[in-house]
Amino acid sequence: MLDGVMLLWFVLAAAALLFVAVDIRTTPESTVLKWGFVLLTAYTGVVGAFLYVLGCREPLPGLHERYVAARWRQTLGSTMHCVAGDGVGILAGAVLSSVFGLAGLVEVVVEYILGFAFGWTIFQALFMRDMAGGSYLRALRSTFISELLSMNLLMAGMVPTVMALRAHIPSAADPTTPSFWFVMSMGLLVGFIFAYPMNWWLVAHHLKHGMMTVRPAGAVAGAHAGMDAAPHVAMSMGSGDPPWPPIPVMTLLSFLALAAGVAIALLLRAT
Predict the structure, then answer these.
(1) Spatial contact of 30 and 214, defined as CB atoms under 8 Å apart
(2) At how many degrees (to 10) do helices 2-23 and 46-55 cross?
(3) For residues 39 and 192, what is the distance between their CA atoms, to the nearest angstrom?
C-alpha cells in the first residue's frame, strides 16, 4: 500500500511541478520567488502547486499587487523562500550523510549547516542583494537573523518527522530509493508548517520580505504603483518600532524549539 501511495505522490508531484514551472512564467513575481515556488512544488508536490495558486498566481490581470498584499500571503512568500533555499542544502546534507554513513545528531548537524549556508548566503543574501543597495555584505548582515529564526523552526518540524517515518520505512535512509525522497518531502512539508508562524512575526516586524510584484517596463500604468510598492516593503526591513517580543527572546524560543525537535527525533531513532 505504501508503494502505491508513493507512486501516486510522485505522479501528482510531477504534474504539479510541470504546471507551476509553465504557469509561473506569466506571473508578475520576482525571479527568485518564481524559482522558490518551483522548488517548493518539487519538494511538496500538489501542496506547493496549491499554495502557488492560492497565494501568488494573479487572479485577474492587474490585480497581483492587491492580491499578494494580504499579510498571510506575504508570510507565505517569506516561508516559501526559506524552505526553497534551505531545502536544497538540507537535501544535499541528507544525501551526503547517507553516502558517508552519518546518522543521528551528526546527520542533523550536517543538514543544518548546509541548509543554513545555502539559504542564507545564496537564496537570501545573493539573490536579494539588490534590496540591500546591491551590497552582498550588507545583504548578509541584514538577512542573518531572519534566516536563523526561520531555519530553526523549519528544522524543528522536519527532523522529528523524518526520523519518525524512517523508523517505519527502513529504506528511507537510502537516497537511491523512492522512499528517501518521499520521506524528505514529508519532512520539508511539516517544516514549512512549523516555520510559518515565525515568518509571520518576521514579516509583521519588517525583518523579512514577503511577496513582490515585478512587471515589465511596458506594463499598464495602473500596475506601476504596485511595482513601486513591493520593493518598498522589502527595502524597509528592520525599520519601524522595535519588534515585540524582542529579537533575543524570539531567538531563544527558536533554539528551544529546535532542541525539542532534535530531542524528539533522537528518542524516536533510539526506540
Answers:
(1) yes
(2) 30
(3) 13
Q: What is the DSSP string of 178-195?
A: HHHHHHHHHHHHHHHHHH
Quote the CA–CA distance of 162 and 168 in Å, as a whole number.
Answer: 10
Is the model's pTM score more than 0.85? yes
Using CA atoms, how far residue 221 sits from 65, 214, 217, 224, 231, in Å, is 13, 13, 10, 5, 17
pLDDT digits (tens, 9 = 90+) for 211-227: 999 998 765 444 444 43
Cα separation of 183 and 162, whole Å?
Answer: 6
For residue range 82-130, what is the model confidence (pLDDT) as tens digits? 999 999 999 999 999 999 999 999 999 999 999 999 999 998 888 888 7
Amino acid at 119: G
Cell triple for residue 114? Answer: 548546509
Give the least confident one: 37-41, 221-225, 252-256, 260-264.
221-225
- Please tell me whether the peptide bond between 170 and the residue prior to it is cis, using omega within 30 degrees of 0: no
Amino acid identity, residue 255?
F
Count the Cβ atoms, other than its own, within 10 Å of residue 247.
17
Q: Residue for cell digits 507512486?
A: 7
Radius of gyration over alpha carbons of the chain, in Å?
19
